Amino acid sequence: MTTDKHAIRFLLNGEPVVAENQNPTRSVLSYLRQEMGLVGTKEGCAEGDCGACTVVIGELIKGELHTRTVNACILFLPTLDGKALFTVEYLRHMNDELHPVQQAMVDCHGSQCGFCTPGIVMSLWDKYNEYSDTDKRPDRQELADHLSGNLCRCTGYKPILEAGWKMFDLPPSPLARQPIIDALSRYSRDSSLQLHHPDAHYDAPRTLQELRTLRAARPKATLLAGGTDVGLWVNKLMRPVTDIIYLGNVAEMQSVRVEKEQLHIGAAVSLSDAYAEAVAHYPQLLEMEKRFASVPVRNSGTLGGNVANGSPIGDSMPWLIALGADVQLLGKDTQRSIALEDLYTGYMQNSLQEGEFVASIIIPLPVEGQRFRTYKLSKRFDSDISAVCAAFNLVLQDDVIVSARVAFGGMAATSQRAAACEASLIGNRWDEETLSAAKQALASDYSPMSDMRASAAYRQRCSSNLLQRFFLETRPENPLDEQQTSVFARAEVTA
Amino acid sequence: MKGTPHESAHLHVAGEARYIDDIPEITGTVHAALGLSDKAHAHITAMDLEPVRQSPGVLAVLTAEDIPGENNCGPIVHDDPILADGLVQYVGQPIFAVYAESYEQARIAARKAKISYDELPAVMTPEEARARESYVVPPMKLVRGDARAAIDKSAHRLAGQWSVGGQEHFYLEGQISYVLPTEDQGYHVYCSTQHPTEMQSVLCHLLNLRSHQVVVEMRRMGGGFGGKESQSALFCCVAAMGAHALGRPVKLRLDRDDDMMISGKRHCFHYDYEVGHDDQGRINAARIELVSRAGFSADLSAPVATRAVCHFDNAYYLDEVDIRAFCGKTNTQSNTAFRGFGGPQGAIAIEYILDNIARNLDRDPLEIRKANFYGKQERNTTPYGQPVVDNVIHELVAELETSSDYAARRQSCRDFNIGSPVLKKGIALTPLKFGISFNVVHFNQAGALVHVYTDGSVLVNHGGTEMGQGLNTKVAQVVAAELGISVEQVRSSAADTSKVANTSATAASTGTDLNGKAAQDAARQIRTRLAEFATREHGGEAGAVIFKNDTVTANGIEMPFRELVMSAYTNRVQLWSDGFYATPDLHWDKDSMTGRPFYYFAYGASVSEVIVDTLTGEWKLLQTDLLHDAGNPINTHIDIGQIEGAFIQGMGWLTSEELCWNDQGRLTTHAPSTYKIPASNDCPAIFNTRLFDNQNHEDTIMRSKAVGEPPLLLPFSVFFAIRDAIASVAAYRINPVLKAPATPEAILDAIDSVSTEA
User: Fold this and answer.
1) A383 and A315 Cβ atoms separated by less than 8 Å
2) How far does B134 lie from chain A, in Å, by closest CA?
3) A35 vs B: CB within 8 A
4) Which helix (H) or strand (E) holds A462?
5) Residues of A in contact with B12 (CB under 8 A)
6) Residue (of B646, B618, B620, B610) closest to B723 by Cα position
7) Contact B67/B97 with Cβ under 8 angstroms?
8) How far apart (Å, rounded) are the C-alpha atoms in residues A455 and A459?
9) Inter-chain contact A47–B676, Cβ cutoff 8 Å?
10) Model confidence over B621-667: pLDDT tens digits?
């Protein structure tokens, strides 16, 4: 197969497709429904929050097919280049019978109005494929977590969770991976994808060097990674996005490695992969991992995007700042690392120089005597934006605090450290008296605002109460385990 | 047959169930979008739409001035403009419509208008509206006895104020209409609506047409919940205006944010109450003001308030009452029908009062609830004068109390709380009684059309609409049962105003009661003709002919149903029939608010156990047990699906779903990113649902009971379990002031209030 640097080539339900003359900001959902007549995938919200448009993306990584769910409504069509897209129509395409996922949904009465159903079927299918080669199956909790991005207004979810269990009782129908792998392996490019549409330019560099050069040449271009925010500019703000540099094909930015007691996460690593790595080192992040947006959004969105976007309510920044993470910034010929908190200069403003971009996030690994926790508060457990997000990181030596880093989201125009609180902690024993002083100090660190997520008073009060929870969980004397402090505690969580 | 899956289940799961936006578009289809008001209350002083007209792809821009007929889509009171005419009354009110070649072009253009306003003071809350005595319809009252005097004489008096929030429907399929001009000034309308006849009617008034010029077709909605009963009309009208002006098919599919900004929601209510009760917690008399946020127009606010008034009693006998309802006119979206239709808002008020009485008397709230239950022979007449003759609440609650192990679990929550400094558990059992029928008597009618084809297959059409509730499945089951054939032989077709005329909204839980009976009537007429024909051919009595298992037995002779049908056809027997049903014995006097508005009552109860974090107000539902009375169910699985779905939906209303307006009067929770309906992890890990073994006392379809709305009251137990957990902080001695929705912030506020008082 020839490589065409100006056409988007991908597999649609196993068949090769070439998409030409497409506006690069066209969503996959629009393309499916309006161009291809594949109307099984639905639009419920056009902002990646309801899951009616859930589809599965497959890509080759080191010769293996990796699949994940994503929201088609906020996925730009060119980002499919070289990948495999599976929609609900594929499940029946494989043989005319209903797939076990679909049959289980019928048997368990998992659909009522049916509008969310194709998206739910795709999320379940993704889980099915993960387990179909094993003799295990996901438990109820794992299924519920996997459906975090699929809203259903009719059923109350119980029959859907039952279907997720019972789909493994039916005669198996595993995904035939090899034909997909063979087809995808023919898609390898020897030059980067470049689209020149009257409405927008789109470049997908494949190396860091290409990216550095492109960025220097087009410093105003929109850097696109997962598109979980940029997609909303197009769908909701009707803002024209005319010049795009896509980061998802830059190999160096996809890497994760441990070096010199630091975890280096490439800026284009998905939130799913980044959190899996981070949780491996810091199990205290498990609840945050589950509560961060939803599975499809975590599969699309990147840690670098979360960091570079700099939203005051982004959930990664407080814990990254508390852990003392740095960001590596690259320009055309420059390279520097700064503390993450120094990246932010104001509401949605940062200290990047023209032509610079965030290339990776560097997280120190745990140290002896460390007490670390992060907490998120929101109206709903799954896929909600935090009212308050807190992170505490103390290092104790002989019960005395020798280092304290405390950071909050939702309390100021950016994620910010609590300087007064930190100062009150350092040098003191981690006891009630210190806690009380730290609470007092914390009250002066922020002046939060009121909005639809919470009032200023609630935010202020909870910042103090979360410090209290942190103390209860980490005090040297009689610390409480998470089962005693969090209604969302899970058995598998360890200190 | 009781376990038949939803007739469309195999299509839903395959992505093959067709919704309106999935219909292949006719060449030349135009896409519409709406330009919305930025102000809560203002006169429009100038409107520059030229930039909209000049935007790429735009074909036309229409305003109120361009409406050929009546600029109204209000279902009862004609106060609901399709497009604002000089005056805007809420942020989000449609002012103009733009029609363009593509969906994106229409939406981009709609933002380009330059509108100048002269702002007026805005009223945002029901309390403000009450203070100004500003209502969308006149206040209503239901009085029995002398409540004031009886309260004054009571051993205990309890007075207070409280409020519950509204609720966005969040049907997954947003509002959509697709209008096609047909020949001779006709229109074919695809509209996601619960009320095709109403759409036909408003469209006729809009375009000065006769009803026979307009066909409204509706195969299925991606959810309705009341939000597409009256409020689909505006969108239907805007699409029709464009089709009329351009002579081309026009589709209006709302973006989610526009949908939430424009359309009305469940009414929030504010309560001012006073009751008198005895030492046992039994209420002697109650006085209450129910004040709703109606929004800027009447819409269905009056019948919603009526149902709230008629459900303030819930399952309890209230001897002397003074119930008043006010539909506050506010500069917000015009609130509308939402599953329960004011019933939940009425009933939760008495539950809150009983919860307070229990804590004041240091008693288990369940004891107080039981002490107030309707009696069977006495204390059994509702405040509106209808005797409760089918009361099963005593035995139903007793059964649930045992099966859920309520008493032991209540104790174990209390034991847990003693040893748990941060997390507190709470539990509650709440009952429900819900009246079935439209309060407006004449809506309680339905029609159906059943065709038996010569190959033995059957097509049924009826006046109801399918929104996921399983109506088409149940109606097909009814027809199959009547004809003694398997349900696979019966297909339900789209609601269609050209097949069954003058239909009522599919609402008030009555879909199956009305349309099931009408379809049964139609099928029965065909069966009677077939039986008569069979006896002509084979002898015997027509009444003794058996229709069963796709076989007909006449005078001892068996023949396949399809053979009899073919034979009847060749002998010129009519194989199709209409059917009709009108609910008997209903009457209602709307001035005195008395009569028999309901054919019967449905009952249910639930137990919920929660755990609450006293540091943050976050909480989790640990276990729920539901026991619900669906009479003799037509379809067990569909009914359980309705019950569980309503439970979770109602739980969202009372907990995570919060509607917020900012100080400019703008709704700030207008997308799923900010408005949080329950998600998968909100479904409790232990979730037991059972149907109460019962038969409908009245002659309803197969002795079943309506099941759409009543279970929306089941999650009251979640709210009161949270309140129980909060009360533990002050040793259950103080009534926590907990507003609904009980968001983490509301819960923490309540915890703080009892901690300070303690």
Assistant:
1) no
2) 27
3) no
4) helix A456-474
5) 105, 111, 114, 117-118
6) B610
7) no
8) 6
9) no
10) 999 999 999 999 999 999 999 999 999 999 999 999 999 999 999 99
Do residue B744 and residue A153 have CB atoms under 8 angstroms apart?
no
**Measured between alpha carbons, how far is A303 from A265 in angstroms, rounded to an integer?**
8
Enumerate the residues of chain A whose CB falls inside 8 A of the CB of residue B109.
none
**Catalytic pick from B274, B289, B644, B709?**
B709
**Distance between CA atoms of B528 and A362, rounded to whole angstroms?**
81
Nearest to B346 by CA among B307, B391, B302: B307
The Cβ of residue A241 has, within 10 Å, a number of other Cβ atoms equal to 21
Cβ–Cβ below 8 Å for A114 and B12: yes
Under 8 Å between Cβ of B225 and B340? no
User: A239 — contact with chain B (CB < 8 Å)?
Assistant: no
- In Å, how far are A95, A327, B669 from B37, measured between CA atoms? 51, 44, 17
User: For the residues of B307-358, what is the DSSP string, one character each?
Assistant: HHHTTTTTTB--SEEEEEEEEEE-SS------TTTTHHHHHHHHHHHHHHHH
pTM above 0.90?
yes
Residues 6+ apart with CB under 8 A from B455: B562, B565, B566
d(Cα A46, Cα A29) in Å, to the nearest integer? 9
Position B756 scores a pLDDT of 78
Residue type, A426: I
- Residue B379 CB coordination number (10 Å): 15
**Is B50 labeled as catalytic in the residue annotation?**
no
Q: Does B686 touch chain A (CB under 8 A)?
A: no
Cα–Cα distance measured from residue B681 to residue B688, given in angstroms and rounded to the nearest whole number = 16
Pick from B249, B384, B264: nearest CA to B325: B384
Residue of chain B nearest A116, judged by CA positions:
B172
* Vertex A380 angle, CA A377 and A385, to 5°: 60
Q: How far apart are CA B464 and CA B447, in angstroms?
A: 9
How many other C-beta atoms can be found within 10 angstroms of the C-beta atom of residue B476? 26
CA nearest B228: which of B267, B198, B194, B203?
B194
Assigned token pair, B560? 């396949």
* Strand-pair partners of A454: none
Q: Which residues between 15 and 34 in chain A have a beta carbon less than 8 angstroms from any beta carbon of chain B?
A: 33
Q: Which run of H or E residues covers position A66?
A: strand A64-71
What H or E segment, with its residue span, contains residue B236?
helix B233-246
- For A55-70, the pLDDT digits (tens) are 999 999 999 999 999 9
Print pLDDT tens along chain A (495 aa): 445 788 999 999 999 999 999 999 999 999 999 999 999 999 999 999 999 999 999 999 999 999 999 999 999 999 999 999 999 999 986 667 999 999 999 999 999 999 999 999 999 999 999 999 999 999 999 999 999 999 999 999 999 999 999 999 999 999 999 999 999 999 988 889 999 999 999 999 999 999 999 999 999 999 999 999 999 999 999 999 999 999 999 999 999 999 999 999 999 999 999 999 999 999 999 999 999 999 999 999 999 999 999 888 899 999 999 999 999 999 999 999 999 999 999 998 999 999 999 999 999 999 999 999 999 999 999 999 999 999 999 999 998 999 999 999 999 999 999 999 999 999 999 999 999 999 999 999 999 999 999 999 999 999 999 999 999 999 999 999 999 999 999 865 443
- Look at residue B49 and tell me whether its pLDDT is greater than 90: yes
Tokens of B53: 């007209």
Closest CA to B429 of B377, B373, B509: B373
Question: Average pLDDT of chain A?
Answer: 95
CB contact under 8 A, B615 and A466: yes
Q: Look up residue A227 and give its two tokens.
A: 């598109």
> A114 to chain B: which residues are within 8 Å by CB?
6, 8-9, 11-13, 17, 220, 222, 468
| Pair B223, A114: CB distance under 8 Å | no
